[in-house]
Amino acid sequence: MNKIVNPIQMQQNDDKTYTLYYFDKVAGHVAPITAKKSAHKYRAVSVHGHLQYCYTLGEARKWLIGMYH
To answer: Are 26 and 37 in contact (CB under 8 A)?
Structure first.
C-alpha cells in the first residue's frame, strides 16, 4: 500500500519559530509573540510579505495556506 503524505508540513526551528512548507516549498513563517499586552499568541508572515496576528498555531497555518499562491 502507498503511504499518503500530507503536502502541508510545519517544522519547528531551533529559535522556537516555525516554517510552513506546502509541497516542499516554503509558504511562510510563524513566530510566537512574547509581549504580555497582546491577546494574540502568534505572528505569521507569508512568503509574499503579508503579516497576520493569530490566536493559535492552527489559525496561523490556515492563514498561510490561504495566502499562498
So the answer is: no
| Amino acid letter, residue 54 | C
* Sign of the torsion formed by the C-alpha atoms of 20, 11, 39 and 47: negative
Contacts for 49 with CB less than 8 Å, ≥ 6 apart:
none
Percent of the chain at pLDDT exceeding 90: 81
pTM: 0.88
Mean pLDDT (the chain, rounded):
94
Residue 29: phi and psi, rounded to 5, are -135, 150
